[in-house]
Write a structure and sequence with these properties.
The protein contains two helices and three strands; from the N terminus they run αβββα. It is α+β, with helices and mostly antiparallel strands. The chain has a three-stranded antiparallel β-sheet, covered by helices on one side. The N and C termini lie far apart (about 85 Å).
């Protein structure tokens, strides 16, 4: 009888731990844009990423600037121009990468 109670207590404890683990996995801090701006960024832009629309996030271009992250509306002309310039710089840095020679 006592063995049965111990097993039941262990089973209850295991179920509790699994439930807490599953709950902790579902609770994620989502860092995304919920609003976007249309004003041109004046701070130097270091990089960018595209954010797709989800249940809690809006579609946006997230620019990384020297002052932090900025959420911008993807339909703005200046946003597309900034992306083109960043991609051009990235392509040029790839093609201008130093090559090693074995002389």
């Amino acid at each position: 009888m006592q063995l049965c109670i111990r097993r039941l207590a262990c089973l209850a404890f295991l179920t509790l731990v699994l439930a807490m683990t599953a709950t902790a996995a579902e609770i994620k801090i989502i860092k995304c844009c919920t609003k976007v701006g249309t004003v041109k960024i004046t701070a130097p832009i270091i990089g960018y990423r595209i954010q797709r629309k989800t249940a809690s996030c809006v579609a946006a271009v997230v620019f990384e600037t020297t002052e932090g992250m900025v959420c911008s509306h993807w339909k703005q002309g200046w946003v597309r121009d900034s992306i083109r310039k960043l991609e051009q710089v990235r392509r040029e840095s790839i093609t201008a990468a130093p090559t090693t020679s074995s002389t």
